[in-house]
Structures are given as structure tokens and as C-alpha cells.
Allantoate amidohydrolase
Amino acid sequence: LTNGKRLWQSLEELNKIGATAKGGVKRLTLTDLDRQARDLVIGWGKAEGLSIRIDKIGNIFMRRAGGDPSRAPIMAGSHIDTQPSGGRFDGNFGVLAALEVVRTLNQHQVQTAAPIEVAIWTNEEGSRFVPVMMGSGVFCGAFSLEHAYAAKDVDGKSVLEELTRIGYVGDETPGEHPIGAYFEAHIEQGPVLEDEGKIIGVVPAVLGLSWYDCTVTGLEAHAGSTPMPLRRDALQVATTIMQEVVAIANRYQPYGRGTVGFVQNSPNSRNVIPGEVKFSIDIRNVNKALLDTMQGELTAFIEKTAQHSGLAIKLEQVSHFPPCPFHEDCVAAVRRATEKLGYPHMDVVSGAGHDAVYAARVAPAGMIFVPCKDGISHNEIEDAKPEHLEAGCNVLLHAMLERAG
Amino acid sequence: LTNGKRLWQSLEELNKIGATAKGGVKRLTLTDLDRQARDLVIGWGKAEGLSIRIDKIGNIFMRRAGGDPSRAPIMAGSHIDTQPSGGRFDGNFGVLAALEVVRTLNQHQVQTAAPIEVAIWTNEEGSRFVPVMMGSGVFCGAFSLEHAYAAKDVDGKSVLEELTRIGYVGDETPGEHPIGAYFEAHIEQGPVLEDEGKIIGVVPAVLGLSWYDCTVTGLEAHAGSTPMPLRRDALQVATTIMQEVVAIANRYQPYGRGTVGFVQNSPNSRNVIPGEVKFSIDIRNVNKALLDTMQGELTAFIEKTAQHSGLAIKLEQVSHFPPCPFHEDCVAAVRRATEKLGYPHMDVVSGAGHDAVYAARVAPAGMIFVPCKDGISHNEIEDAKPEHLEAGCNVLLHAMLERAG
Ligand SMILES: NC(=O)NCCC(=O)O
Ligand SMILES: NC(=O)NCCC(=O)O
């Protein structure tokens, strides 16, 4: 069994980097804080005798050698970048749980047939740069390295610039790295496990996702002297779309999701009618047909709104992955490990995207969820119980051992 | 008659300070650019032999002595701060038209009984700091100097700090400065004169205005894993209010106005349900009863929305002035001057607020409008014809002379 206390202490240590006043973490991808966090975890890996490899998109792989040189590594990991007002567990738990598996194996001098690897994927959150799940996306070939390198943040800095700046452009070509199986432990980020009183969620699938940038262009004019009928108010048109995003999601329950998380209003002066509004759209659902239907309704609504308002509306897809069912062997391995350890469990579909979605394209993959307080994540108040994290880590250990032999 | 070419050249000179690539001006109040513009215009005033006085809120008064020491000055002015994406004429025209009146009087060695003064009021635009029309508001006692000093911009800098930094905290107590009559020339900032083919607008009144800050507080949570029914999405609630602001204005035509110009969404990450949205509300109408009704409907809607959504909604009034009819003598003086000069004219109610609104509380006041292209203002493409500006300046000269004797 793993050492929950050691896991917790490492989490606390890591979360000093970018700690916020409200008890959360702000450690945006490819910032100096991200570099510090990478350096810290790599140091821990080296202390456990792991060999380090870094690829061209900055993904980090830390390997514990196996007994059988012909076998591909059994990998576990997640990410250590966070949201601008992020929590302490999202991603961090998965990486440190994988490290704790290694520490446990070292402590008990367990020799596995396949190597064991800890993965730290670059820019999972997608908050600073799109596409989301960038490192694992490049790794599995969902999009190109060049596409990822070219992504810019709101200040116009590119991924390549920032990755170079923090010194994490590695040598390895992304994807030239065989994986025998991939597991990811993560907090649920939703309320289901807590509501049902379960400790482990076995994750059969992840919702598919489409992200868009939408821009509405009107005409800046004076808020006092411009009569209402003559206005071309970009914000008024944008808000009807923002509301429709949620209305569409509500029509395709229980798995439909619709969110506008980012808004940039211009010129953003209180007595100027907005001339341009840019905003993000995030829609998700559990199967391709439903997600396609939602996308269709969104584009139709936007076309209708453009015609009706006479304003120009641009809609651009910036991230997309279809719903992802995990490999039945890995799902079964997680379930067996959970049952063996005797934890109350249930199946939970993941509403959040994870690097496991892209890992699943190149290897059998599975996920392990543990509860988080009130189902809240992407919030500084995100919280989880040490004993639940330890349970998730134990399930990870046993599922990995089953595959690693 | 005034010299339209000289007026135009001074406008061009002034508008080099903060000139934007798109042909507009960005010269926010109390910035270094504002200081440069103040210095330039004061230099011109000194060259005309004017004596300069500055008050504690940074209002600048440049005086040409009169023959009768017992008489209060006849004043004309406006402002030289601009919107973030402002035009070249809004405010600047009024100040330089007043200066052109002085230059014309000097050139023709005209001695008036009352002194003539050029006023440059601080922070008319209200974009960086509220309340709007700050300098004239403090001058007339609409709100206190301390209240104005304490106002902060989005970066947390205060008016007092910034006014001190640019060196424009004067000695004079605001308002301890008698005014015989006040005139302000301004572009219309609306489409009426152009549509009707008139050159001069005689302004009988200005719409009353209420500005609010509204804050909706929900709960930040994950955009993928949080089921729709459990969300407390601050942006979704805010957008219903944003739409109602416009709906209310549409119900009280032809003078009702409703605008949301400023929006700040938080944490503003595409996969985080917004936890807090702050936005501005600007409503206006032509008489107190209608403006009160609009305010009443707004607060009622917000109460209902707070109850219905369960989210906290804070509404705070940050600027207010009632509809302002101008003094009949001044309105008549403007009309007489226009008729004497033979310009096609009509009455136009001002949708925009002006320093004249506050000057009207301490002296008889009146305004002169000239057309602007397509009625567009608070936009870098704001435009006006030199011959219209010259006409407005001539009307200003004659109206002032009538009052100054
Ligand atoms: N797990 C997680 O927070 N992923 C970020 C990508 C998403 O929005 O689902
Ligand atoms: N004239 C002008 O643009 N004033 C700014 C205040 C307002 O919004 O009316």
C-alpha cells in the first residue's frame, strides 16, 4: 500500500509554488512558477533514481526501469499547470500519486516486468493557451507540434517562446515513446461521488468537447447621444449568444454542458456602446451524435443572429475532441483493484477533459476518480480528503501492478 | 468673425498628443498625455496674454481681462480628456473654440466689459474615473472634492494621486470663482443635425443620467464536470440584466437610452464557470419622471433576478444628474447669434452629458452643437467639417459678446 502521508506532504510542498491568499494555486502553464514546479518534481524523481526524458512540447517522462527490456512502460501521470484561480488537487494529485506509486515500489524493492513511468503533460488546462490538453494532444498526434507552438496567450506570447524561456523544450519527438498502458488518478471535479458516498469512481468515458472563439463586431458610439434604433451594440448581440449556449446544453441533459467562461469587451468604457465583443464557448456531451447536434444548433443560432442583427459574427473552433470511452481492460483493471482493496465505488463519466483522453489514442487507458468537496474544482476552494487521495493512489498502484506484471 | 483655419490648426496640433493609428485620440484623464495637452493649451493661453488659475480638482481657467472690474467673467470651455478610443473633436473643439474667441478679440483689439474666460474641466469623460464630469461637478458642488479625490481607476490609482503626479492640483477652492454666463460649443455626437441638413444645433436641454456599477456573484466551478442544474453561473445572470437595460430604454422612447459599456468577467478562463461579473449600467432620459421610472424598473428587475437566481447582485449608483434644461436667456442668445449669422439651425436635445450641465447650476448656461459625421462619437472615426466648426465658433463669439457687453 502507498503512503498517504508522504503523498499529502509532497502535494503541500508543490502547492507552495503559486499558492494564493484564498488557499488555491495560480500556476499558469509555461510561467516561471510552472518551471519551478517542474524542477521540483523532477528533483523528486531523480531522488527516486528515475531517468528523465523531455519531449519537444515539454512533456516530462520519469522512468523506473523494468525487468523485461522488451516491454513498453506502464505510465501514470497528469499535469501540474493550474487555472488562474485554481485548486490544489486538479492534476497535481495525479502526478504525485504516480510518484507515490514509484516511491512505494522503491521502498518495498518491487521489481516490475514493464518499466513504470510518471508523466507530466504540458498545458492541460488550456486556460492560457489553446488547444486544451496540449502536451498529450501533440503526443498522440491530435494536432501538430507547429500548431501548438504557434498558440498565443492574450498578451501575444507564443507557446514556443514561453517553453523556450522556461527551458523545457526537450529533445524527444513527441509520440516517439511507446506506452504499454496509461492510468490517471484525478479528483472528480463534480459532485457525484460525494453525493453517493463513494470513495472511488471508475471512469468508463469522458465527455467530448468543442471550444470556440466567437467575435461579434458592432459599432462603437456614444452611449448618450446615439438613439436606440440606430445602435449596433456588439455586447447586446453577444449576450443573446451567451444565453443560447446554456439553453442548448439544457436541452441535451443529463450530459450536455454549455459555458461561456471568457469575455473581452471593447473598448470597455462605460459610456461607449461596445464595438466588439470576443468570448469563448465550451460545449460538451457524452456521445458524438449529441455533441454534433449541439454544435449544429449553435452555428444555426449564430447565423440567424448575424442575419437578424446585421452585425458580423465570427465563430472559430479552437479545440475539439470527441467523446472518449476508455479501454475495457484498463477500466476493468481499475474496478478489480478497487474491489480487491474494498473501497465503495461506482462508475462516473468524466465531464472534464483529461490527458488520458489523448493517451487513450496511443495506448489502453483508464482513470480513477476520488471525491472532491462539494464537487467544486477550477476554484481556489477546491478541496479533497487525504484518505480519499490515499485510496485513489492505492487503486492506481494495484491497477498498474496488474498491467506491469 | 473667428478664424476657422487657425482653430483647425490648433485642433490638429493638440490631437497629436495621444493620436491613435486609426485617426482618433487616446488621452485618458490625468495621464501623462493629459498633462502634455494641458501644458500645450496653457502655453497658447499665455501667448494670448491670459492669466491662468487652477483649482484643487485641476480645472483650468484662463482669463482675458474686462473693462468693468465688478463683472463676473463670461466663460466658455469644455474638456481635453478623451475616451480610450476617442475622437478628435469631443471636448477639444469646445476648448479651442473658446481660445479662438479670445484670439479673435485680441486680433481685433475688442475690449469687453466683462472678462472672458476659457475653461478646461478635469475628467469630463468619466471613463477612467467616476463620477463623470468630475471637474465641473466638484466646481458646482454636485459632489465633494474628497469624493472626487478618492475615485479609483481599474488599476487602483486614485484621482488625487494622479492629479498630484501630473502636477495639476491648483490652489483655488473649486467653485470660488464667479461666472457671469457659461457657453459650451460641442459636436452633437448624434445624427440629428446631419440628417436634417442643419449647421447649428441650439441646445435647450441635456438628458438626465444615472450610472451604476452592478456585480453578480456566483460560484466558480468546472465547465465540464459541473452539471447544468447545479451551476451558479454569474455571467448567465448578468447577461439577462444587460439585456434588460436595453429593453427598459426601448420602452421609453424617443429619449430613453440604455447601455452596458464596461464588463469585467472573473476568473475569465474558458473552462471555468464565471464566479463574478462586474459591469456598468448607463440609463438616460429627458425628464425626471421618465428617468425615475427607468431606474425603478431596473432595480425591480434586479431584485427579481436575485431572488429567482439565488445569486447575490449588488447595484450601486456611481454617477447621477437629473435632466438639465438650460437658462432661457443663454439659449436665446445662442439662437439670436445663429440667426444673425444666417446659419441653418434647429433645436437639439443633448443625449451626452456636458460640463455645461454642472456649470448651469452656478450660472446661466447654454450650448452650441455642430454636426459630426454619421452622428458617430466616442469612436476613433469621429469626424467633423472645418466649416461647421468655424460656424459653431462664430456663434460662440457672438453669444459671448452679447453677454459680455
Ligand atoms: N481536468 C481538467 O480540469 N481539465 C481541463 C480541461 C477541461 O476543461 O475539461
Ligand atoms: N460629451 C460627452 O461625451 N460626455 C461624456 C459623458 C457622457 O457620457 O455623456
In short: The pocket of N-(aminocarbonyl)-beta-alanine (ligand 1) is lined by residues A 90, 124-126, 132, 189, 352-354; B 222-224, 271 (CB under 6 Å). Chain A has a mean pLDDT of 97. Residues 87 and 153 of chain A are 21 Å apart (CA to CA).
